Amino acid sequence: MRGALLVGGATSDAGKSMIVTGLCRVLARRGVRVAPFKAQNMSNNSAITPDGGEIGRAQALQAFACGLEPSTRFNPVLLKPGSDRRSHVVVRGKPDGQIAAADYASRRAQLLDVVTDELASLREDFDVVICEGAGSIAEINLRGSDIANMGLARAAAMPVVVVSDIDRGGSLAHLFGTTAVLGAADQRLVAGYLINKFRGDPGLLAPGLDQVRELTGRPTFGVVPYASGIWIDAEDSLSVSVGRRVGPVDDDGRQVRLGVAAIRLPRISNSTDVEALACEPGVDVTWVDDASAVAAADIVILPGTRATVSDLAWLRSRGIDGALRTRAERGRPIIGICGGFQMLARTISDDVESGIGRVEGLGLLDMSIRFDADKITRQVTGQASTSVGRVPIRGYEIHHGRVDHGTDDPWITQGEDLIGEGAVRGAVRGTHWHGLLENDAFRRDVLAALAAEAGKPDFAVCTDTSVAAIRTAQVDLIADLLTAHVDLDALFGLIDAGAPASASIITHSLIH
């Protein structure tokens, strides 16, 4: 098998990332040399490659499903929103300035060569490349400068499968309308459809799929059922909704449970940091945005953000700063990660990200933060002291901020020279390291300390939870779902055959 396939969406958040992850895993388990690809991603949930490049977190998970290390080749263009109208641009893993939304159309035309060259290179090195589109493939107002959906499919002569989330309603209309609004040349590349998150009796849906085939001339390759156990790294921080429980909900009958409140900052980044805690039995993690929830929780996570100073002002406007100070005074645990760590400082000097200059931080840690124009992006390793001795740890950094440490103890030590990283003052902890809580032995030790500080010393920490094993089980679960509910032979036949030689063209005369 050799070729490529683009998995596009009828809407944003239709399940493209999940489908690509599952297809990559199915092919890898069959011994096919497969790689993921997303030409352009807009996300503040990012990962760091071994060489220090930055890519979308979803593409790092897809690489994991393929048995590969993350690489900038899999996501050559990454946009990180800093405000509603401006984004930071990352090209081939490295910062490449900022751009306003209105100006990006001209910039995308220049980036088309970047993404098509990278895709062509991957197709030479791998048997199959499974590409993920961005948003909806029917954003016709952006079609002229598109480099991630039909523009990419046309440039690379790839067949396209469109995914629709039926749980939201209107799925059949989405499939028809998405295809119908495309130009004829784009329509010819649309080979068929996938329905995602279906609940109920497939027999009731079948007549609708038959009618969609009559109207469009295209088959539905599968109906993937809704599965509550599916839990993968979120690509878009906007999908992190207030009140949403993080991770699978377990009810193991424990009498003592820990409630974790993760503050849903407006420009949250790397929201996946909190998910390692949600892997633990008896730990309930929920996204919140109000002071009362922050006050009531056993543990509070102040996560990363793409706009530290602006989100700090938002936090103050909602009275959450006062709730955090009260927690600190009462010795109740708070963890700040990256931007959230920076907010805990005495002062923040930012002439880079916000351009505001010096502002007062929350003052819960004895340090100052200074933003530097050079961005730190790297994987990191180190050691940490735990109740069972020193244990190895690893993580990654993505930040402009530099720390001027004061009198607080470091949270972890880094490298052979044991340089301190992060800070601890009482029950307040902070670090620039993302992924720190994914280190199993370290997380268990921290969780035991947090439970005691929260007034729940009887909480029993699980001794065998493995985040890596849970992540492996998740990608295998997705692959198993697709194997059971998708016509993979037909889908993979598209990869071998390439773009359809001929396909039905929907004209407006079909719409009465």
UniProtKB/TrEMBL annotation:
<dbReference type="Pfam" id="PF01656">
    <property type="entry name" value="CbiA"/>
</dbReference>
<dbReference type="InterPro" id="IPR029062">
    <property type="entry name" value="Class_I_gatase-like"/>
</dbReference>
<comment type="pathway">
    <text>Cofactor biosynthesis; adenosylcobalamin biosynthesis.</text>
</comment>
<comment type="function">
    <text>Catalyzes amidations at positions B, D, E, and G on adenosylcobyrinic A,C-diamide. NH(2) groups are provided by glutamine, and one molecule of ATP is hydrogenolyzed for each amidation.</text>
</comment>
<protein>
    <recommendedName>
        <fullName>Cobyric acid synthase</fullName>
    </recommendedName>
</protein>
<dbReference type="InterPro" id="IPR004459">
    <property type="entry name" value="CobQ_synth"/>
</dbReference>
<feature type="domain" description="CobQ/CobB/MinD/ParA nucleotide binding">
    <location>
        <begin position="7"/>
        <end position="231"/>
    </location>
</feature>
<feature type="active site" description="Nucleophile">
    <location>
        <position position="338"/>
    </location>
</feature>
<dbReference type="InterPro" id="IPR011698">
    <property type="entry name" value="GATase_3"/>
</dbReference>
<dbReference type="InterPro" id="IPR033949">
    <property type="entry name" value="CobQ_GATase1"/>
</dbReference>
<dbReference type="InterPro" id="IPR047045">
    <property type="entry name" value="CobQ_N"/>
</dbReference>
<dbReference type="Pfam" id="PF07685">
    <property type="entry name" value="GATase_3"/>
</dbReference>
<dbReference type="InterPro" id="IPR002586">
    <property type="entry name" value="CobQ/CobB/MinD/ParA_Nub-bd_dom"/>
</dbReference>
<feature type="active site">
    <location>
        <position position="434"/>
    </location>
</feature>
<keyword id="KW-0315">Glutamine amidotransferase</keyword>
<feature type="domain" description="CobB/CobQ-like glutamine amidotransferase">
    <location>
        <begin position="260"/>
        <end position="441"/>
    </location>
</feature>
<dbReference type="InterPro" id="IPR027417">
    <property type="entry name" value="P-loop_NTPase"/>
</dbReference>
<comment type="similarity">
    <text>Belongs to the CobB/CobQ family. CobQ subfamily.</text>
</comment>
<keyword id="KW-0169">Cobalamin biosynthesis</keyword>
